Amino acid sequence: MIVPFNHVLALSVLLFFLGLFCAVVRLNLVMILLGLEIMLNAAAVAFVGASLRWQLMDGQALVIFIMAVAASEVSVGLALVMAAYQRTGSVDPLQLEQDG
Fold first, then answer.
1. SS3 for 88?
2. Which residue ranges of the chain lie beneath pLDDT 70?
3. Domains in the chain, number
4. Given its phi and psi angles, is residue 4 left (phi above 0), alpha (psi -120 to 50 degrees) or beta?
5. Residues 74 and 26: beta-carbon distance below 8 Å
6. Which H helix or E strand runs over 98?
7. What CATH number is attached to the domain comprising 91?
């Protein structure tokens, strides 16, 4: 493996916490979905790094499953964002709480 496993895990942890920060702090439904996507990508990086470290294909197979889940999350999430926008005229999650 060219890149040390510790560096791969450090990148994965950094990406995960950036995604978590984006999902918690932002007040826009699209940015919350983007934060969730970043967290899924962080998990995928960790799985690929572990797969290369231990020479097993299980991690890479799991990454394909993560990509399928991410694609379905995007389609359902964007449909929910469009429904929320049609209902309130805004993509602010706090606006949804007030109109709910």
1. helix
2. 1, 99-100
3. 1
4. beta
5. no
6. helix 93-99
7. 1.10.287.3510
What is the residue-wise DSSP string for 22-58? HHHH---HHHHHHHHHHHHHHHHHHHHHHHHHHT-SH
Look up tokens 């993560």; give the residue: 66
Q: Which residues, including other chains, have CB under 8 Å from residue 27's CB and lie 6 or more apart? A: 92, 93, 94
Q: Which residue has the tokens 């496993």?
A: 5
Helix (H) or strand (E) holding 85: helix 58-88
- The confidence score (pLDDT) of residue 35 equals 94
CA–CA separation, 40 and 64 (whole Å): 12
